[in-house]
Amino acid sequence: MENCIFCKIVAGEIPSQKVYEDDTILAFKDIDPKAPVHTIVIPKAHIASLNEVDGDNLKDIAHLISKIPQIAKEQGVDASGYRVVNNIGRDGGQTVAHIHFHILGGRALQWPPG
Ligand code: 5GP
Ligand code: ZN
Q1: Key word Ribonucleoprotein present in the record (predicted)?
Q2: CATH number, domain at 44?
Q3: Is residue 88 part of a domain?
Q4: How far is Cα 93 from Cα 88, in angstroms, rounded to an integer?
Q5: 102 CA to centre of ligand 1 in angstroms
Q6: ipTM, 2 decimals?
């Protein structure tokens, strides 16, 4: 998808600190971390948000979610706990229109968020 920051990261046109990659998903460190561990996990195929998940792309999202515990473990937060966040649209705080799941950890996180 043209002009999508995360598609450019997938294509290698924008550098990123990758922490996990396979055929269909990519995980990399957030450029502006909100916690000691802040990893972004995306499908390589462009899906704008959870609102666009359908029968065709659900397999990639299911695979992505199944890999989150492994990625969290590799980031060292599996035992202490962590949070997975998916922001959707304007009021949800989504700033990049390519579906992504935040893995946040390494400190006690507040609840509820603002
Ligand atoms: P959102 O607010 O859409 O849920 O999250 C987007 C996240 O992507 C933000 O936490 C932001 O810091 C991160 N981000 C935006 N641009 C880049 C980039 O070019 N590289 C990396 N690694 N992260 C980015
Ligand atoms: Zn994209």
Answers
A1: no
A2: 3.30.428.10
A3: yes
A4: 7
A5: 9
A6: 0.99
